[in-house]
Amino acid sequence: MAALASQLREEKDIVLAKEKEIKALRLKVRNQDEAGMMASSENVSLREQLERREEEICDLKCAA
């Protein structure tokens, strides 16, 4: 009986460790997703700035 209880505790510890690992991985994925969204948002902003600058150059060339 003591051997079964010991085995059960060991298996429970393994399960808890796996659950902790899963939570850590989920957090890591969420952080990467958020970083990806931020990078995407920044990319859109930079593209808009680039388009404005290109329009300004075109306007300057046309005015010259």
From TrEMBL:
Protein name, as recorded: RING-type E3 ubiquitin transferase
Organism, as annotated: Brassica cretica
